[in-house]
Design a protein that fits this description.
Structural class: alpha/beta
Shape: globular
Oligomer: single chain
Strand order of the largest sheet: 1-11-8-7-5-6
Low-confidence stretches: none
Distance between the termini: 42 Å
Number of helices: 10
Bound molecules: NADP nicotinamide-adenine-dinucleotide phosphate
Largest sheet: 6 strands, parallel
Length: 281
């Protein structure tokens, strides 16, 4: 039976570490959280981030804008936040309403305040192994592997999904940790032939019960990034947890796995940004 990786407990530990460092900074860090529109899930995420900030002693500046906010109004706000010395990180909650171009807005954020690590400059720095920030979700997965002393070096790692937010940066971090990484996606043929070889399998597809026990090698480490809703509206991952749990050596639950770690790593990035802006190492 697999050991369940406790993301909630580890996230609390990471946040406590951040809070201790924040407490001795000359200036309190600040996060600007921009929410455009009324998307209920986004509101929940934003509330969670504001709560995390409070726990870590970080100030949060909420900017809740109406659905009909224009491109120029949003760009003006981002430019203003870029200049604001009290703001160390800027987070624009995605998805944005359809009339706004997410790529353009992300590119408008100053890279040294891009705590989501979505700006092309930060993606580039990550890809050459000189990151300013680490992308929150993949960094959360790496932190879990470290905490549980799970070796990555030399291991076969398979990442399901190639999104800019999860799959690609996940593969990058695993490669930098000396894993041998394969990325699979919707056009991959004979998917199970890859997953069955994985020592570490990371799933970020977004489909309930997508990863079944016959796709997993005995003793594999299974990290489930997905946050899906099943037919009864319950939060679940990609992995058929009940069946895979008896085959894997380690497994992350959903909820209580990667999700809380993503939030904790955002706080870690805020600390990094604040130190950068206060010229501290
Ligand atoms: P996404 O942009 O929709 O990407 C999904 C990926 O899965 C794509 O690369 C897609 O391939 C691939 N895929 C789809 N069907 C497949 C199939 N049949 N076989 C193999 N690959 C397949 O989603 P995302 O933003 O990366 O998010 C993925 C999941 O993680 C979602 O459930 C999301 O809610 C969750 N998530 C969780 C957190 C967290 O904090 N835990 C953070 C971010 C996202 P193509 O590229 O070929 O289309």
């Amino acid at each position: 039976m697999a050991i369940k990786i406790d993301g909630k407990a580890l996230a609390a530990k990471v946040k406590a570490r951040v809070a201790a460092e924040v407490a001795v900074l000359p200036r309190r860090p600040g996060l600007a959280v921009v929410l455009v529109g009324e998307d209920p899930a986004s509101k929940v995420y934003v509330n969670g981030k504001e709560k995390d900030c409070a726990e870590c002693g970080i100030r949060s500046f909420g900017h809740k804008l109406p659905e009909e906010t224009t491109r120029q109004e949003l760009l003006d706000l981002v430019h203003q936040l870029n200049q604001d010395p009290e703001v160390d990180g800027i987070l624009v909650q995605l998805p944005l309403p359809r009339h706004l171009d997410e790529k353009e807005i992300i590119r408008a954020i100053a890279p040294e305040k891009d705590v989501d690590c979505f700006h092309p400059v930060n993606v580039g720095l990550l890809s050459i192994g000189e990151p300013m920030f680490l992308p929150c979700t993949p960094a959360g997965v790496m932190e879990m592997l470290r905490e549980y002393h799970i070796p990555v070096s030399g291991k076969r790692c398979v990442v399901l999904g190639r999104s800019n937010i999860v799959g690609k940066p996940m593969a990058m971090l695993l490669t930098q940790a000396n894993g041998t990484v394969t990325i699979c996606h919707s056009k991959t043929e004979e998917l199970a032939s890859y997953t069955c070889q994985a020592d570490i399998l990371v799933s970020a597809v977004g489909k309930t019960n997508f990863v079944t026990a016959d796709m997993v090698k005995d003793g594999a480490v299974v990290m489930d990034v997905a946050m899906n809703r099943n037919e009864s509206g319950k939060l679940c991952g990609d992995v058929d947890f009940a069946a895979v749990e008896s085959k894997a050596s380690y497994i992350t639950p959903v909820p209580g796995g990667v999700g809380p770690m993503t939030r904790a790593m955002l706080m870690q990035n805020l600390l990094t940004a604040a130190k950068l802006h206060q010229n501290l190492k």
